[in-house]
Amino acid sequence: MPRFHCPAPLATGAEIALPPGAARHVQVLRQQPGDALTLFNGEGGEFEATVLKMGRSDVLVQVGAHHATEREAPRAVHLLAGITANERMDWLVEKATELGVASITPLVAERSVLKLKGERADKKIAHWQAVAVAACEQCGRNRVPVVHDAIDLAGWARAQTGAAASDGAVAAQRLLLSLRAGTLPLQQAAAPAGPVLFLSGPEGGLSGAEEDLALLHGFAPVTLGPRVLRAETAPLAALAALTLL
Hints:
Radius of gyration: 20 Å
Distance between the termini: 29 Å
Oligomer: single chain
Order of helices and strands: EEHEEEEHEHEHHEEHEHEH
Structural class: alpha/beta
Mean pLDDT: 92
Largest sheet: 7 strands, parallel
Strand order of the largest sheet: 8-7-6-11-9-12-10
């Protein structure tokens, strides 16, 4: 059954117009009045719904029964991931969402090929958030992970000073993907339960200065094994190891 994100209050029996993106998708699928679909707004669970009216650009549906279904990972894993080049960041966001990531913070690292600021950064963040929404529609998640504003590591570290202690990413165990000698395998370093903040760099990895700063702010260096993984693969491998095993 088609699933659509509808970021609005949903209540059984209500008749609502779908947001433009969802409406276009319904039209592309050529759904007709009487057809069933599923809606979720990110606040928990999902709703049955039925198409009532198909307009030229709008779609009216009636909201049905609510199901308290959750498909979240058993632990919250937050990614602080170096921005990768070309379309690889889109792929990272999509697959991380499918694997159950709790949030993603794009990291503007010293070796990042793509440097974001101003209006261009705002457009990229909005695009990546839309990628996460689409991935949730596909994979069945009812809670959309937040894609935070892009930031460099020094700025992120400064922001932690005023961050709320209740924030999951702030209170999480901090792990840093590193090639330094003496790092522990991820499975040994990670706590058996509880939230994790996983930091990884872009192509070429983090600089020595960035790794030093991360260690200063409580990150423990870990390795994923003897093979060198691409920048978009490494955080996904860590995420899978932390949420699927």
